[in-house]
Amino acid sequence: MTTLLHIDASARKERSITRDLGERFKRQWRAVQPTDRFIYRDIGSSPPDFISESWIAAVFTPEEKRTDEQNVLLSLSDLLIEELTEADVIVISTPMYNYGMPASLKAWIDQIVRINKTFTFDLDRGDFPLEPTLSGKSLVLLTACGEFGFGENGARETMNHLGPHLRTLSKYLGADDIHEIRVEYQEFGDKRHKRSIESAYESISGTINNIAEKLELRQELDATASLARKS
């Protein structure tokens, strides 16, 4: 059974393009894999806490020396990391706000990209001391923006601080495989926007099939490796 973690980051509860994309993705996935498990977290409606000086101090305190207060402070982070660790597929449905990610999504990222949990730090590695601890996951980005041309070689490519930022962080989420489905032209509300929505809808099934094929291959490789260890 595959486990999917779905993160909704839109502040809108109604008429949200990204929430709609997320629901469509979930319905189409379940139509193909009805027994798979979804973990859902609506950070747009219930944002995680921002990290603080006390939070940082707790993170860098060895577990056996943490106070009860520090353990409480890190409890949400522990839960979010547990959800992430369990997931084979991460689905993030998020709008672009001011050319970047919503504050709620950044807060979620800051709670889970955590030393000795999702990455380790060792200066013996030289100039690249950080090493992710998770791997083998697929990441699906379902995004929407008011303008257009944020893709590769687009008129606003250099202004896109949403997709590239998440791609940079993806290795700390354990994602080796990344897919993005983007709706543009929202503020224009014209035929181009309608075509962009239709194109995004059409891309969902192909993305699901692509991920499902890779998951099957990964399971076959894991099974082969397990047999090899036993023989």
Automatic annotation (TrEMBL):
Q: Where does FMN bind?
A: 10
E.C. number(s) listed in UniProt? 1.6.5.-, 1.7.1.17
The record's cofactor note says: Binds 1 FMN per subunit.
Sorted alphabetically, the keyword list is: Flavoprotein, FMN, NAD, Oxidoreductase
User: Which SUPFAM superfamilies does the record associate with it?
Assistant: Flavoproteins
UniProt cross-references to InterPro entries, sorted A to Z? Flavodoxin_fold, Flavoprotein-like_sf, FMN-dep_NADH:Q_OxRdtase_AzoR1, NADH:quinone_OxRdtase_FMN_depd
List, in alphabetical order, the Gene Ontology terms for molecular function in this entry: electron transfer activity; FMN binding; oxidoreductase activity, acting on NAD(P)H as acceptor; oxidoreductase activity, acting on NAD(P)H, quinone or similar compound as acceptor
Enumerate the cofactors the protein uses: FMN
Chain's role: Also exhibits azoreductase activity. Catalyzes the reductive cleavage of the azo bond in aromatic azo compounds to the corresponding amines. Quinone reductase that provides resistance to thiol-specific stress caused by electrophilic quinones.
Q: Family per UniProt? A: Belongs to the azoreductase type 1 family.
Q: Whom does it interact with, and what assembly results?
A: Homodimer.
**What name goes with this protein?**
FMN dependent NADH:quinone oxidoreductase
Q: Which organism encodes this protein? A: Amphritea atlantica
Lineage, top ranks? Bacteria, Pseudomonadati, Pseudomonadota, Gammaproteobacteria, Oceanospirillales
What gene is behind this protein? azoR
